[in-house]
Amino acid sequence: MPITVHTHSHMEVNNLSWSTSSKKVLDDLSFTIEKGQFVGILGPNGVGKSTLLRCMYKYLTPDSGEVLLNNLNVSAISHREFASKVAVVLQHTPVGFSMTARQLLATGLINQQKWWQRINQVAEKHEIDRVLSLVGLTSKADQIFESLSGGERQRLLIARALLQKPEILLLDEPTNHLDVGYQVEILTLIKSLEITVVATIHDLNLASAFCDKLLLLRDGRLIKSGTPAQVFTPASIENIYGIKTEVDSHPQGRHPRVTYHFDGGRHAAV
Ligand SMILES: Nc1ncnc2c1ncn2[C@@H]1O[C@H](COP(=O)(O)OP(=O)(O)OP(=O)(O)O)[C@@H](O)[C@H]1O
């Protein structure tokens, strides 16, 4: 059985902008993330998806606008308080020194003790074994993180985030490196937690199947938002990605299915 956390947490982004010295990366974004929603942030490479997540988890401070967690500006929330509600899985998470999978997971257990004091306690060992099993890594428990495959690392980092029992999970391309079996399995697991999830995601069909709401970005601006059925039309996909598609209903009937036309894509000569 997955770890179930009933969430009461929600987020709101109001008029958020962020720039480098030479480029406006995020331009006046506003949207809400309702409690329990699974929200996908989509858009081509370089449009600002990861930067938006960085603002949402307090790594970057917006130039203007605000990010609210449960109606409080995140800049006014201590890192400890924030981490008790929000867990983050990044694309490239630096792991400081050689740790086994089990040791890395122990760093995700939030309480007053140091992870090396917690790791052998029975209840916590049980929790760690449980999440290892959930992400299919039981046999890798004592393997050094750096020696795991890309997909195994990704699953381990998701498992560590789950151990935090967050009310909100922020994920930067969670399916990166995962084979199709694990893409579906991990997203199904995350969805089953019924917590609030915000994920950047490139795969339109996975976004369609798992997300309640999609935010479509282009050049740092929010172009369209809504349910997959509202957002995924051939016109909006061509507008954002410059490719032609067919959009029909998935055979399982609950969400749109996007099929790409292979005519060279947006950089093809016309
Ligand atoms: N600290 C920074 N300094 C300079 N440029 C930056 C910085 N952070 C982000 N950028 C630029 O802002 C743009 C958006 O980057 P971001 O990583 O948010 O894009 P993305 O939509 O997540 O892309 P991808 O789909 O490729 O992961 C890119 O052009 C990136 O080079």
TrEMBL record:
Transmembrane segments: none annotated. It comes from the Bacteria. Keywords: ATP-binding, Nucleotide-binding. SMART domains: AAA. Residues 11-244 form the ABC transporter domain. GO terms for molecular function: ATP binding. It holds the Pfam family ABC_tran. Gene3D superfamilies: P-loop containing nucleotide triphosphate hydrolases. CDD domains: ABC_Iron-Siderophores_B12_Hemin (cd03214). This is ABC transporter ATP-binding protein.
